[in-house]
Amino acid sequence: MFGPQVYSGTTNFAPTSGEIIMNAYQRIAIRPTELLVTHLTSAVMELNLLLAKMSNMQPNLWTVDLQALPITQGNATYSLPSDTVMITNAYISVGSGASRIDTLIWPLSQTEYAAIANKASQGKPTTFWFNRIISPTITLYLTPDGNGPYTINYYRVRQIQDATLPNGVNAEVPYLWLDALVAGLAHRLARIYQPQLEQIRKADADEAWAIAATQNVENVALNITPGLGGYFVR
C-alpha cells in the first residue's frame, strides 16, 4: 500500500546564473570542482551571447511591456529606450479617463515611409516606422496636428537583462525556458572545451528549444477576414 501523496507546495525553482553555468558544464563532463576562472569567464560570455540569440528569435513574450509616449504637434520622430528590440502593436490615444479613445496604428517599412510624398502633412497619426538602429526611433505619419493631446502607446519587446555571476543573480528567463537555456549553453561550451560532444549537445539544444518555442505564443484563435471593400471589377 502506498501512503498519501505529498508535494512540495512550492513553485520557486529559479536557478541562478551560476547554477545554470555549472549544470551546463556537467552536461559536457566538466565537474564543478574542475572549473577555473577562465571557465566561468567563457560561460558568462557565451550565456550572454545565447541571450542575444534569443532576442533575435522573437517574440519573447516575457519581455513584452507597454510604453506610453506623449507626442507633440509638428514632431514626427521620437527616441525610444535603447533596449527596445521590436514593436508588436501600437495605438494612438486621444483624451483621458472615460472619454479616452484608442485607435490602432499600423507599421510601415523604411521603403514605404520613404515613398510618402509629403511627410510633413499633419493630422492624427495612422502609421509608424520603427527605425531599428542602435538608438531606436519611431516616426509617425501623419505628423501629429494640434487636435490632441495625443499619446502613442506601444507594446515593445525589450532586450533580455544581462546574465551576471555576482550576488546570486538569476537569468531573466521564465521557468518554461530553463532547460532550453542550459542545453543551449552546454552546446556553446562544448564548442570550446569538448568539441567531440558538440553535435550531441546541439541535438539536445535544438530539441529543448523546439519544445520551449511551442509555448512562447498567445493561445488565442486566429481569425482572417478578407478586406473586400477595395476590390472592384474592371
Written description of the protein model:
A hairpin with a 6-residue loop joins β3 and β4. This protein has five helices and nine strands. It is elongated. It starts with 16 loop residues before the first helix and ends in a 21-residue tail after the last helix. Strands 1-9-3-4-6-7-2 form a seven-stranded mixed sheet. It has two domains: 96 residues, no CATH class; 98 residues, no CATH class. By secondary structure, it is α+β, with helices and mostly antiparallel strands. The mean pLDDT is 93. It is 29% helix and 23% strand.
Sheet with most strands: strand arrangement: 1-9-3-4-6-7-2
Per DSSP E runs of 2 or more residues, the count of β-strands stands at 9
- Largest sheet geometry: 7 strands, mixed
Task: Name the overall outline.
Answer: elongated
Give a quick summary of the entry.
The chain is α+β, with helices and mostly antiparallel strands. It contains five helices and nine strands.
What topology emerges from the helices and strands here?
Layout: H1 17-27, H2 37-56, E1 64-71, E2 77-79, E3 84-94, E4 101-108, H3 110-114, E5 122-123, E6 127-131, E7 137-141, E8 143-144, E9 150-158, H4 178-193, H5 198-213
Features:
alpha+beta, 2 domains, seven-stranded mixed beta sheet, 9 strands, 29% helix, elongated
